[in-house]
Specification:
With 309 residues, this protein is α/β, with parallel strands linked by helices. It folds into two domains: 9-220, 3-Layer(aba) Sandwich (Rossmann fold); 221-296, Alpha-Beta Plaits (2-Layer Sandwich). Helices cover 30% and strands 28% of the residues. The chain has a six-stranded mixed sheet, with helices on both faces. It has a four-stranded antiparallel sheet with strand order 2-1-4-5. It starts with 8 loop residues before the first strand and ends in a 13-residue tail after the last helix. The structure holds adenosine-5'-triphosphate and magnesium ion. Adenosine-5'-triphosphate (ATP) binds at residues 18, 21, 23, 41, 43-49. Residues 9-234 form the ABC transporter domain. GO terms for molecular function: ATP binding. InterPro entries: AAA+_ATPase, ABC_transporter-like_ATP-bd, ABC_transporter-like_CS, ABC_transporter_ATP-binding, DrrA1/2-like_C, P-loop_NTPase. Keywords: ATP-binding, Nucleotide-binding, Transport.
């Protein structure tokens, strides 16, 4: 990711109210060319509202958002010439065939059916001759994805695009997004499939109740949490449990010991264990799912922050 470039998307303190309800209180993040940005958060957090504001469908009540340096609401017509968007629940005209709808989507977006379109139809194994009303949810999503991936845009926005795809098509989706990234395109991907986000996204923004609570790379976010270590040493390591940053030291039936350690105390702990002659050691960093659960299990009723319980 080259951050020297100007961001494709720049959001600064975006706010959106529905009546008195503040759906977006404070949303700020940037997406750069050649970057896949993962946008995650629980149901109702404000992901689709943010995206609908970016598309110029909703008008913000405060803050600013620009795409290609242009205002998302005032300049939406010009922005949309270089933008592709796929929603999670795709509406299709029931009496048109998949192929006709793909071409219609392309035309509406100012593009045309190309070799790329045929390649994508093949990749996602869609039968484009069938009427849309006969399509399953996954097939409806494929229609929108094929149109988006065969559009030559500079910025691609996907709002939970894979919820109806089987694992094979999910893989084709990931492959197609990585191809966009390689071409230097910018991608905003909202998803509940955290393994997908973990695998594909360069940076991640977590939204909660209309506010961005964390932005960064997965590695940066992992620093906020603990790593689980399983090890065996020749000499006993009795001081481990009282070392700063070490938690939950447990000796298992097989003689291996496990504990968790705060990232900022890792070095001292590793030095200590090395002095006890390590036979085996395995470290498991927290997954995005662990991080996500940590955020959302911490609501008003439970004390303590996200960082270290
Ligand atoms: N048109 C609307 N009028 C009133 N409230 C709305 C409207 N659109 C969204 N909301 C509310 O704004 C909040 C954010 O909704 P949004 O659809 O952005 O959530 P989301 O993060 O996309 O959730 P999900 O993961 O379920 O897709 C929700 O509380 C929702 O009920
Ligand atoms: Mg949504």
């Amino acid at each position: 990711m080259t951050k020297t470039n100007e961001p494709v998307l720049h959001i600064d303190h975006l706010q959106k109210k529905f009546g008195k309800f503040e759906a977006l209180k404070n949303v700020s993040f940037d997406v750069y060319p050649g970057e896949v940005f993962g946008f995650i958060g629980p149901n109702g957090a404000g992901k689709s509202t943010t995206i609908r504001t970016l598309l110029g469908i909703l008008r913000a009540n405060g803050g600013t958002a620009t795409i290609f340096g242009q205002d998302v609401f005032k300049d939406s017509v010009s922005i949309h010439k270089r933008l592709a968007y796929v929603p999670g629940d795709v509406y299709l005209w029931p009496n048109l065939t998949g192929g006709e709808i793909i071409d219609l989507f392309l035309k509406l977006g100012g593009s045309m059916h190309s070799q790329k379109t045929d390649d994508m139809i093949k990749r996602f194994q869609l039968d484009p001759t069938k009427k849309a009303r006969t399509y399953s949810k996954g097939n409806r999503q494929k229609v929108a994805l094929i149109a988006a991936f065969s559009t030559d845009a500079d910025f691609y926005i996907f709002d939970e695009p894979t919820s109806g795809l089987d694992p094979l098509n999910e893989e084709y989706f990931q492959k197609s997004v990585l191809e966009l990234k390689k071409q230097g395109k910018a991608v905003l991907l909202s998803s509940h499939i955290l393994s997908e986000v973990e695998k594909m996204c360069d940076r991640i923004g977590i939204i909660r109740k209309g506010e961005i609570v964390e932005t960064g790379t997965l590695a940066e976010m992992r620093h906020l949490t603990r790593t689980v270590i399983e090890f065996k040493t020749i000499d006993p390591a009795p001081e481990l449990g009282s070392m700063p940053g070490v938690h939950n030291v447990v000796t298992q039936a097989n003689g291996l010991q496990t504990f968790s350690v705060d990232s900022d105390h890792m070095t001292e702990v590793m030095d200590y264990l090395a002095g006890k002659q390590i036979v085996s050691l395995q470290s498991t960093p927290p997954t995005l799912e662990d991080l996500f659960m940590r955020y959302y299990n911490t609501d008003e009723n439970t004390k303590g922050g996200v960082k270290n319980e």
